[in-house]
Design brief:
heterotrimer, A alpha/beta (213), B mainly alpha (103), C alpha/beta (354), A: 213 residues, alpha/beta, Methyltransferase, Methionine Synthase (B12-binding Domains), Chain A, domain 1, Rossmann fold, 2 domains, 5-stranded parallel beta sheet, 10 helices, 5 strands, 10% strand, B: 103 residues, mainly alpha, 6 helices, 61% helix
Chain lengths: 213, 103, 354
Amino acid sequence: MAFENEEKKLHDALVSCKVPDIAKAVEEAHAAGMSATAIIDCLGNSMSEVGVLFERGKLFLPHVLSAANGMKKAMDDLGPELAAGGETGEAKAAVVMGTVEGDVHDIGKSICSTMLQCAGFEVHDLGRDVPKGNFINEVQNGCSFCGMSALMTTTMTVQKDVIEMLKEAGLRDKVTVMVGGAPVTQAYADKIGADIYGESASETTRKAKELVA
Amino acid sequence: MAVPHYMASGMGGIRTAGDLVARIEYDKNLKVDKAKEYVAKKLGLDSLEIADEYIMRELREELKIGTVTAVPGVPRGIAAKMNIEKLLDIKINSCEKFRGMLN
Amino acid sequence: MTEYYTRMGDGKRVSMTKEQIMADLQAGTADAADMGEIPALSSAEMEQLFEIIADKNRIVGVEPGHEVVLTYDIGQLDFTGDNGNSGNGVDMGRLESALLHERALGADTFELAHADYSIKPVKPIIANEMQTMEEIQNEIVAPYFYGAMPNMGLYYAPDGPYGNPADLLREFKMEESMASSEAASEHLARDIEYVSTRIIQAGADGFNFDTTASAGDADFVGTLKGVEALRKACPDAYINVGMAGESVMGIHGGMEYDGKIVAGMYPHQQVKVAEKAGADVFGPVCNTNTSKSLAWNLARSVTFIKECVKVASIPCHVNMGMGVGGIPMCETAPIDAVTRCNKAMVEIAHVDGI
């Protein structure tokens, strides 16, 4: 396989989560003739592994961000070639994320936002206790994914309310709705008509990536 | 959730000697088997008998350490806990505070 | 081929063959063994788990003589709370609830709790809590704790004075994020000392730190330091440290306790630092995956908890509520699943309490 050695080095550097190592591996791969697009694809695949390692307690959030920072730097460095090859370097899609109104649990949603950002999405994180209408506004303004977290059985019903509001506003077909949070299950996601249920942050990110691939 | 857990494996609290075993786990950091042995020895019973409602109902009333049914005149609360202190050879915080309030 | 009724992690009833159940048991224990770098269950233990799961009786239980201590968290809120904390919505006083648990529900211990169930909001109303503690201690016989979650999320903006570390990380402000976690952790430790020592002064038997590390590694370190301070001030207090999840999330990543990085710790590692801080009893947790079967979740949970109990020098009371300890993530957790998980934890993981 062409560039097998370079791909391994890129993978190892990204999983090491060290920005200088990532930059060095990118430079060497590029010098060896690997295309900018192939380099970024390789880093992107390795980034998914970083997400899984985080969830398994083998890497921590600063590591994930450091890896993402290394990847961002690679995209900046390879920008001209990516643009020449038709790659715009633009985000995969814009995602509005938030914990629904009445619920102040923030951490799971924040980790999911981080994973999505690391995967190349433009994340509009509205925080927690987000009024229903704010999700609708973001979708109206161009977000094609709407991610809602709820950690309580009393607040998970708000996810359904927002889906109904999207329907009423004629926006439901324009947006992929993602739901998650401790009490939320696949069965509940199906019942309220969500498109993606994420058992974890990395599963949500993987499913979102599959839809924009 | 409480009832199924109690039915499946719970000692039974003051229906039996569950509260006493719990105190010893916390007071002496003993694991459950050792804590049960400690309590059983103090009660003159074995580890099976201290979770037996039939045996413990009468014994608790006799020892004045609190009963699950409302028996008028039988100690409960601080009075029962003071008797538990003597029985298990431990100090109980609320009893210490109570004693501290007396002249 | 014979099929057995069992459950999914969300509580839904399914039927599975022995081969399917055994395959899920194998996969569940392998997942825990891989994540925690701990031994998987033996073939004999998995066969024992299968027998428990496949039992035709609706309710299963341990053999007489093998009973364990049953402790309760969340205090009176299991009666008075709304469904957000699986409460029954039955309004009643805290004394009535405590005595009902002691005299009708087989509780070996019980606790007093604030409606928010977090340390921080208790601080300004501590005198009220102390008064109620004194009143209930006069009536109750069973060990009576004060219970609350460290819940360090309340120390971050907009609820608290420190920046949200996850938000700062997304802006690549690594050092600022870590500094925020460290400051919040110190603040939490101070509040724990303030609240817990005062409630012990009011006669509480002890303090139950529930859902520890819910905000990650800094939350865990702050709690352990708070436990240390409580142990120093009140050497005889009963201290229970219960966790939020099977793994400590690394939001900071570098915070240490007793020279060890706590992020990424699994139950068998968590218990050792809890012991060091001064806990009397540790409450390990393993989270339920709602998309997997009861067999997968229970094998995974038992694998984690068994190793924790094995290495612990103090008793371990496994968390077994909605969505933890193999129990389905379901508000009205099915009795068949609850009792199966209970029996497995006692007979295979050898827990000291539930």
